[in-house]
Amino acid sequence: MDSQARAAVRVAGVSKTYGKGGAAVQALREVSYSFGAGTFTAVMGPSGSGKSTLLHCSAGLDRPSSGSVWLGDTDLAALKENQLTRLRRDRVGFVFQAFNLMGSLTVRENILLPLRLAGRRPDREWLRQVVEQVGLAQRLRHRPAELSGGQQQRVAIARALVTRPEVVFGDEPTGALDTRTGADVLRLLRSVVDTHRQTVVMVTHDPVAASYADRVVFLADGRLVGHLDRPSADQVANRMAHLDDWGAGC
Ligand SMILES: Nc1ncnc2c1ncn2[C@@H]1O[C@H](COP(=O)(O)OP(=O)(O)OP(=O)(O)O)[C@@H](O)[C@H]1O
């Protein structure tokens, strides 16, 4: 991240332990990091290294065992459950591997759902821009089952953007897509960062997907162990292959 850039999300000394006693698993160990506003960050690491846990704690989907998480100036630990629910609805967007669309709703209704749930009116000009950017203007009356996987993910991205969130979190957003369709979705995420200064944080296993990011951060065994700025897919793959050789420190 540019050291001058404002942090959209900041985690400080975040640890997360699942379970208790002998069954306890420490998924994150004292992770500190700032995700710069208007940047695209990919989070990588071996299976079980804590990527999804970091994403979930950063997005207010889960609470850390210790440490703090800030979304802009808001300390998530200070929020009650209902406030956290509202924050997730109003201030962050999510894109998951499984598109999680409502099958009974049209594309337009799916995109507008977060606003409907919040009782907010759509900003028509923003909606038009989002729909145009994701390339779904001709599909607004269709239902998800009538769309390809890539189109469905683009609906999910439009839904994530419609509230103008401070951060869009993606958990393997291209995991269910073929290479070409995945590339379309990645180009779209890249373009929303470039044109709207949107902040995107994406967990991925795929070095090619990670290479669309401004920065790739690497987790190993619950710790942040390094980063690469604007890397090629080969550089990411190479770093992944050598993750075990690294010392700590980002
Ligand atoms: N709800 C849970 N209860 C108990 N252990 C959990 C839970 N969620 C995650 N873990 C454990 O915490 C560790 C980190 O999991 P996490 O899902 O964050 O890793 P990941 O890097 O996203 O893995 P993957 O790439 O396989 O999705 C793993 O050892 C996992 O088994």
Descriptive labels:
single chain, four-stranded antiparallel sheet, six-stranded mixed sheet, ATP binding, 10 strands, Rossmann fold, alpha/beta, binds adenosine-5'-triphosphate, 250 residues
Helical content stands at: 25-40%
Q: For the CA atoms, what is the radius of gyration?
A: 18 Å
Main sheet overview: 6 strands, mixed
Strand order of the largest sheet: 6-7-8-3-9-10
Structural class: alpha/beta
Looking at how many chains there are and whether they match, the oligomeric state comes to single chain
How many distinct helices? 8
CATH superfamily: P-loop containing nucleotide triphosphate hydrolases
End-to-end gap: 12 Å
The structural domain count equals: 1
Spans where pLDDT lies below 50 across 5 or more residues: none
The proportion of strand residues reads 25-35%
Q: What is the CATH architecture assignment?
A: 3-Layer(aba) Sandwich
Globular, elongated, flat, extended or rod-shaped: what is the shape? globular
SSE topology string: EEEHEEHEHHHEHEHEEH
> Could you tell me the number of beta strands?
10
Report the bound ligands by name, code or SMILES. Answer: adenosine-5'-triphosphate
User: Average pLDDT, to the nearest integer?
Assistant: 91
Instruction: Determine the CATH topology.
Output: Rossmann fold
- Top CATH class: Alpha Beta
Organism: Actinocrispum wychmicini
GO molecular function, one term: ATP hydrolysis activity
Keywords: ATP-binding, Nucleotide-binding, Transport
Pfam family, one: ABC_tran
